[in-house]
Design goal:
This protein is about 30% helix and about 35% strand. By secondary structure, the chain is of the alpha+beta class. The chain is rod-shaped, with a radius of gyration of 46 Å.
Length: about 375
C-alpha cells in the first residue's frame, strides 16, 4: 500500500476509536448515575413526652366584688344629678334628686288629717266622760256608756292611722333624694335629668370599695374545670410584671342565652395597682383526659387518602410513613390524638418529596437539638 493511502486511513481509524471511546465513557457515566442513590437532607423534630395537663387562658375585666345598682324608691322626674362616672362617693352623699312637689302636698294632707283625727279624739273623750257621769248617777243606761267607749276607741285608731300616713308621706319626700349607702366609685349612669323613672329603676351604679374580682366567660367545654376554690393566676395587660394569685369564688349556674358561656368570678388580693376596668388574663390548668401532641402543620401529609407523618429511622437513616389521628387544628399547628409517641423523629419540611425507605441526611445533633428546643411549645408539649 502506498504511503499516501496509509496517511489517509490513519486519521479515519483514529477518529472512529475516539468516538467509540466517548460512547463507552458516556454509557459508564449513565450507569453510574443510575446506581447513585439520592440522599436528601431533611429537617426533623423529636417528639417529647406529652404532659398530662393543659393550660386554660381566658380574658376578663376587673370589677368590684359588690356593685350597687341604685334607684329611687318612688316614681318621679329627675331634676338634679350630682355625680359623674368615676367620682368617689361616701355614705349619705346625694347622687340625684327627683321632683317631690306632689309628695310634699301629700305631707300637708296627712298633717291636716292628723289634726282632724286629734279633734275627733278630743270630742269622743268628752262624750265618753259625759256618758260615764250619767251612768254613775243612774241617769243613762250602760249601753250608752259602752257606745261612747267604742266611739272613743275608733277615734283613737283613726288618729293612729293618720299619724302613720304622715310618717309615710314624710318618707316619700325623703326618698326623693337618691343617696349612697356605702363608699365607692360611680361606674355607670343609666338615667339623667328630665327623665321620668319608676321606683326601683337603676339610675346610678356604684362599685363598692374593697375586694376586686375578675369576671371571665368560660365555654361549656371547660366550665367543669372551674370550681369554687380553684387556684389560678391573674396577669394584667397593662403591666406584664404584675401577677397575682387568685381563687375562683363564684361560678354561674346557667349559661348566657346569647354567648352560651358561663360567668366565673375570680377573687384577688387587694393591690393598689389593680384598677377597675383593667383587662386581665386568668390562667388555670386542667387535667387532660387524653394527652394530645402538637406538630407543625408542615409535618402533616396525605398518603392513600390517610393523614400521615413521615418518621425517620435514625439507625438506617431512612423514612417511612405512619398514619395518625388528628384531633383538631390550633394556632400552634396540628394536634394529634393517636399515632405518635415520645422519641419519634418527625420530618417537618419537604414531606411531598418523601418515599418509603428513602435515604435521608439528618442534621447535626446540635442543630437537631436546637430545632427541638425552638419548637418545644408547638411539638412536644400538650396542646393547650
Amino acid at each position: 500500500m502506498s504511503s499516501s493511502r496509509k496517511s489517509t486511513l490513519m486519521p479515519s481509524v483514529a477518529g472512529l476509536a475516539l468516538v467509540a471511546m466517548a460512547g463507552f465513557l458516556a454509557g459508564c457515566n449513565d450507569k453510574q448515575a443510575e446506581n447513585t442513590e439520592v440522599v436528601r437532607p431533611v429537617k426533623v423534630l423529636a417528639i417529647a413526652k406529652a404532659d398530662t395537663t393543659r393550660a386554660l387562658d381566658y380574658s376578663g375585666s376587673v370589677r368590684a366584688r359588690t356593685e350597687m345598682n341604685l334607684g329611687f324608691r318612688i316614681n318621679g322626674k329627675i331634676i338634679d344629678r350630682r355625680v359623674d362616672i368615676g367620682q368617689k362617693v361616701k355614705p349619705g352623699d346625694v347622687l340625684a334628686r327627683i321632683d317631690s312637689t306632689d309628695y310634699e302636698l301629700a305631707v300637708r294632707r296627712a298633717q291636716a288629717d292628723l289634726a282632724s283625727a286629734d279633734k275627733q279624739v278630743q270630742t269622743a273623750d268628752l262624750a265618753h266622760k259625759r256618758a260615764q257621769q250619767l251612768f254613775d248617777k243612774n241617769v243613762s243606761p250602760k249601753s250608752q256608756l259602752e257606745q261612747a267607749d267604742l266611739t272613743y276607741d275608733q277615734a283613737v285608731s283613726t288618729r293612729d292611722s293618720a299619724r302613720s300616713a304622715l310618717d309615710e308621706a314624710n318618707n316619700q319626700v325623703a326618698y326623693a333624694d337618691l343617696t349612697s349607702d356605702m363608699s365607692g366609685i360611680v361606674t355607670a349612669i343609666n338615667a339623667d335629668v328630665g327623665q321620668v323613672v319608676g321606683s326601683g329603676t337603676p339610675v346610678i351604679t356604684v362599685a363598692v370599695d374593697g375586694e376586686k374580682e375578675v369576671q371571665i366567660a368560660v365555654p361549656e367545654m371547660d366550665i367543669a374545670q372551674f370550681k369554687p376554690g380553684k387556684e389560678v393566676k391573674a396577669r394584667f395587660w397593662s403591666d406584664d410584671t404584675l401577677v397575682l394569685d387568685g381563687k375562683v369564688r363564684e361560678v354561674s349556674g346557667s349559661a348566657d342565652q346569647q354567648s352560651r358561656t358561663f360567668a366565673v368570678r375570680v377573687s384577688m388580693p387587694n393591690d393598689p395597682r389593680v384598677l377597675l376596668g383593667m383587662t386581665a388574663t386568668i390562667e388555670a390548668t386542667a387535667e387532660n383526659t387524653r394527652p394530645l401532641v402538637s406538630i407543625p402543620l408542615s409535618a402533616l401529609a396525605q398518603k392513600d387518602g390517610q393523614q400521615v407523618v413521615w418518621l425517620v429511622d435514625s439507625g438506617a437513616s431512612t423514612v417511612h410513613s405512619r398514619a395518625i389521628k388528628v384531633a383538631d387544628f390550633s394556632a400552634d399547628g396540628v394536634r394529634v390524638a393517636d399515632g405518635l409517641k415520645a422519641g419519634d423523629v418527625v420530618i417537618t419540611a419537604g414531606t411531598q418529596f418523601m418515599a418509603e425507605n428513602m435515604k435521608v441526611k439528618l442534621p447535626a445533633a446540635k442543630s437537631q437539638q436546637a430545632s427541638a428546643d425552638d419548637d418545644s411549645t408547638a411539638a412536644a408539649d400538650v396542646v393547650r
